[in-house]
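Recap from last week: sequence in, structure out.
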Amino acid sequence: MKLTILISFLLLLLNCEDTQTSKNSSSETPSKLSIKKEIKPEKIIQKSEREFPLLTEKNAMDFFLGYEKENKENKVRITTDFGNIDILLFDKIKFHRANFIFLTKQGYFDNTQFYRIVNNFIIQAGNSDQKEVRKKRINIGKYLLPTDTNRGYKHHRGVISMPSSEIDNPHKLASPYEFFIVQNPVGAYHLDGDYTIFGKVISGMNVVDEIAKQEADGRGWPNHNIYIRKVEIIN
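Predicted structure tokens:
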């Protein structure tokens, strides 16, 4: 009888020790730390992965100086609901050509709009009131481009030029995300010297004319959205 009681007591004691050991194992931190070690590197990689630096006033010019040497493309096609506009970018205007090619390769212009149209003057594009476009700008960066107006180019009909930024800008530094095409049959030569011409339409002026004829309000904002569906590099 005493032997039976002793055996039962020993078994109960062993069961209590097993239970305590199991509890201690489940509350240890090394397994949690090992999980953190697996997740943390992935987060760091995601933050640091960029195809290009965030562009600023300080680094944009150096960036495009290198970019234009490696990216020599100079023809693009603007696809709209009214047809295609093919543009030749001038090699002499290095930074503006490189900027336009860079934004094209980043898909920035896709689904932006011709947001200002003045018949017998210009059509202006590259902006939108959509959140997606604003997000693209934030992702690319905030910077301006210097004017480059001493290359002999004039604001003839069909040239593509870059408007100055809307910010306080006495030197008329160019807003890199926007551009305009001169649609006036007699040109717009009063713009010479203030705005940088960096290309010309080589096909599709009939499309430019059709866009310019669309109805707009007093500020030139079209009554109906006129989208750039896609901008792509062509040979």
